[in-house]
Design a protein that fits this description.
This protein is α+β, with helices and mostly antiparallel strands. It has ten helices and four strands, in the order H-H-E-H-H-H-H-H-E-E-H-H-E-H.
């Protein structure tokens, strides 16, 4: 049996003989790369960057400091950034973004049709990206055929995430606000009922002095001179009712103060996301440059033609040997 060798010398000789073929294939690959550049749809990438604010800084316990004076950082921590990432990946947020950006007009699909809506969501998911850095800033980007669309979607994504993130906290505060507000209404009814009762007792027995036991340092000298029957019981009733009414009035004042604090913490002027780099319509296409694409196409053509020439020469040499 004859051994067929194909060493480095054979490889070099083959490359020398096939150099015209290799150069031709390389040029063909470069030309094909240029054709690809001409027929491909140019895409643009809009990028926006923001920081996550600490939601505790807008809490009423921090905004109206009366007892606790601990330091609260302005910037949100890793847990807050994790919440933003979770919101950004939710279908609810993404659905609001595509609706606010009028995707049905941009991509010519019916957003009210389930298939059309699914197609728009798929387009958004393929072209949208969100990532965080080691500096705790978050970057959102969107790739589109139009520069204005790419920038608009990136900015809208930040806006929707800020509204969603802020609503997560303000909704809980508004629930507490509603609960306390309902309690104030109940207190108003109770105070009005006690007021009517006290007014009736005072008019009936002619007692108009301040005799509540909760009001110290108040002395009324005219009560001891009245000896009418039932007068003593009336004084005791007025004292009891006035003590309850005074406490309810105090509670109502505290509740109203708390309502004002919750109202201040839900003001829209408090931002939960701080935009530090707004997305502008990009002036250059996204992806690799023309030079890079042509260089890669030439490298692929050179590699393919070289391997092809070596394999063909080797197999021909094998077939030429008698077995």
């Amino acid at each position: 049996m004859t051994n067929t060798s194909f060493d480095l010398v054979d490889i070099i000789r083959t490359l020398q003989k096939k150099r015209n073929f290799i150069l031709l294939m390389t040029l063909v690959a470069i030309v094909l790369g240029g054709v690809f550049l001409l027929i491909r749809h140019t895409k643009y990438k809009g990028v926006a960057t923001f920081f996550v604010n600490n939601p505790l800084y807008g809490d009423r316990s921090t905004l109206f400091r009366s007892h606790d004076t601990r330091y609260v950082d302005y910037f949100g921590g890793d847990d807050d950034v994790d919440k933003i990432m979770a919101f950004a990946n939710s279908d609810t947020v993404r659905d609001r973004i595509i609706r606010n950006c009028q995707f049905q007009d941009v991509y010519k699909k019916d957003i009210n049709d389930p298939k059309g809506h699914a197609a728009l969501m798929g387009i958004f998911n393929r072209n949208f990206n969100i990532k965080r850095s080691e500096f705790k800033d978050v970057q959102v980007s969107y790739v589109a055929y139009e520069p204005e669309v790419a920038a608009n979607v990136a900015n809208m994504a930040v806006k929707v995430m800020e509204e969603t993130y802020r609503h997560y906290y303000t909704s809980m505060k508004m629930n507490m606000y509603t609960s306390i507000s309902d309690k104030v209404i109940q207190l108003d009814s109770a105070i009005n009922a006690l007021t009517d009762t006290l007014a009736g007792l005072r008019d009936k027995y002619g007692i108009y002095s301040l005799i509540s036991p909760t009001r110290r340092d108040i002395i009324s000298g005219d009560m001891g001179r009245i000896t009418a029957k039932g007068y003593g019981r009336a004084i005791e009733q007025i004292q009891n009712i006035e003590s309850i009414k005074d406490q309810l009035v105090t509670d109502r004042a505290n509740y109203i103060s708390t309502l004002n604090e919750f109202s201040a913490t839900t003001n829209k002027s408090m931002e939960f996301l701080k935009l530090i780099s707004r997305a502008l319509p990009p002036t250059s296409p996204s992806g690799a440059s023309i030079t890079t694409i042509l260089f890669l196409a030439g490298c692929l053509g050179l590699a393919f033609s070289t391997v092809y020439a070596l394999l063909i020469t080797y197999f021909r040499k094998l077939n030429s040997v008698e077995r």
